[in-house]
Queue: 3 jobs
Job 1
Amino acid sequence: MESRNMCMEAWKTLRSTPMLGCICPNNPMKKRCDRIFNIIHNNPCIGKCHYYYYYYYYYQSQ
């Protein structure tokens, strides 16, 4: 339960940043942006929590 709550908090924090839906621009910083994007989106904690995040917010809104 505790790790699920930690993942939920990670999702809430990530959701409030522009990195959640970031598409890296094609400029000199692209390589750095791609690396950050991959670190965030390949995070296993965030991947596991994806379902819980949407499930939680879907049922909280009803």
Job 2
Amino acid sequence: MEKPEYLSFGAKHWYERGQRLKQDGRHREAIKALSQAIAKNPAYAEAYFARGACYYALGRYDQAGDDIDAAAILGCRDAQFWSKHSVPPLTISAGDPNE
């Protein structure tokens, strides 16, 4: 039995697709693509960071914080910077940074 074409795509394909969707402001679709990248490669730090940015754009701050933290732990320099230097800090598990 032949597997569907989308299952043969690698993590990089899904990451790049997610990035394009994110840049187009299609955050919900980007989250789905970036989640595929993470499923294919659970150590894909940049995919966690990009997905966290999408969650943040949608106001889903707890999920954004979790992904940014995961990206930082996995070595994503952008995530490490934002975790330490963002105002408000991206340890946003406490809720909406605008409150």
Job 3
Amino acid sequence: MNDLTASPLSGDQVGSLYRRLLAHLERGDDLDALMAVLAAIEALPADSPAKPLLGEAAQHAIAIWQRLERHQQHERALRTVFESAQALTELRALDDVLQNIVVRGRALLGGDMAWLAGSDSDDGCFRVLAIDGANSEASREMHAPPNAGIAGHVAKTRAPFTSSRYLTDQSFSHDATIDRILADEGLESVAAVPLLADDDVIGILIVGNRYQRTFQPWEISILTILAAHASTAIRNALAYAAKQQALREAEEANRRLQEKIAALEFAAEADARLNRQLAKGAGLQEMVEVIAATLQGRIAFLDPTGRVLCTAAAPTSRDGGNDIEALLTPEVLLRIPAALGQSLFAGHSVPVELWQPGHGRVVAVLSGDDHLGSLLIHTSKPLSDDEVQVFERCSTAMAVVALLADRKSFSARRDVHLTVRALLDPSQHGDKDLATRAKHHGLNVEAPALLVLLAVERARVAHCLRQIPVIFRQYPHIATEIDGRLVVILNRSDPAAVRDELHEALQGETDTTWLGCVSRTVYGMAALAEAYQSAKRVIALLGKLRRQRCIVQEPQLALYAALFEPHSAAAIADTIEAAIGPLLAYDTRRGTELAPTLLKFLDENQNARAAARALGIHVNTMHKRLETIGKLLGAWNEDGRTVEIHVALRLWQLQQNERDRS
């Protein structure tokens, strides 16, 4: 450079400067290279004849570079717009399209932050659909009323908008919340263009910078073109989403239709199987086998008392084999009545927790209001709604089969009834075939036997009769209903144990009242008939004494029953009052136990020491109580009053609501 300024320029030196300018323009060097040549020209001596021309040439070169740079910017912007349009058309997911729009909009204008605002169909507010370059979460949650903010202004004017001083620009309505968020972001300048779909504004694309700047018209034009492409891409994405949704709905509808067709075919096949079994007169066992094969599970049919009558498992069952009855443990059987009660109330099957991993259901088998039993299923996976319906229809088929079986056994039950009546009627004991008929039903009339007479409410007679085989299933027995009472004859010789077993079994009948009598051990038909008449008298006496829910042994009350057979309940009460009324009144008033003391004294043949030992008291206490009793009853052990008082005390004891004890 010093050589250029030290002496006048030669022609080669001037040409060198021109060539440098042209070379920089040709290579597309940056502006700094041209500015360096300009600086060298300006450093020439003022009296240099070539300096003005060289300076003018440098200025022209810089102007040419700037025009080329603008053209290149426009070219790059257009290329970016077209690339964006192509990229947007390739996107399918709406969220991806929206995010791509703001990223490309920010890149086109060199913005610090860009977002796309959309109008909410519910309240019309503008909310952020996608955002890029934000520093805070609040910016992502921005929403402005429809008549405020940049989005509201552009949506109303439907035209692009720019501002180099956003926060102080008064050309549009501000929203305080939006202003505070954008101030926190440090935004100064913004440019916004609408996304139009025909006459509707479907979004606002906004680009902002964190410094003051003026957006050039060509930049707004480029952003507008991007917005147009974005609008098309959004509509395409929405249309694609709608198409995909419609396709999914069509596929789902087709799947449901196929499932329904399969369910109908399954139900039709199941009905056909059941009908074929009914047509050929299949029994309960055959029916449960068909149900197990149809529903691919394990099936049990239980009678109304919970006793398992028959079981089956599907041939292809993989959940543990056929031994379903072995899995019905006492713990499991305790869960079934509650579930069965729900089924009876609801009129359909209900789930029940059974055994091991799997799923259980139970449904009541009904004929009108008559409960015939219950159908139980266990499967490795839950039954579908259609399979549940088939299972419930199976219960109807089981009801038909159970009724048919009941009809088949009607003659057998009738013969049992006639046989028991004949055994209890001495006038029919001359029938030589009577013992054989009884033996055919499992009773040996020549072996030791007990007779049980049970009085229950009329509505519960049939139910209790069905329980008898469960209670005495381990012993030969025969049972029927005579005159509204249950008569059971069984080959056993332990009346106390039978009484206890029957009492325990009937404790579960909480919704009914009952009275029972167990005879002494008898031999032969004549003794059975006598025991029956005595048991009837005992039951009648218990009724007169207003006893409920108790089982007694016939020998204990036979004498009293025969003695007071013609007496009414009121007459018996008067007898007790006349004999021991003052004693009972004293016990009630003082809380003493003189009546039980006197009864035990008489039971021990008036032995004070033995009675005291039985009551667990001192003999002196016993004598004091007897002295008090004498004051209350007078000379109770004279003039034959002892028997009268003893009988009255025994009747009083029978009136108590405690269980009779031997």
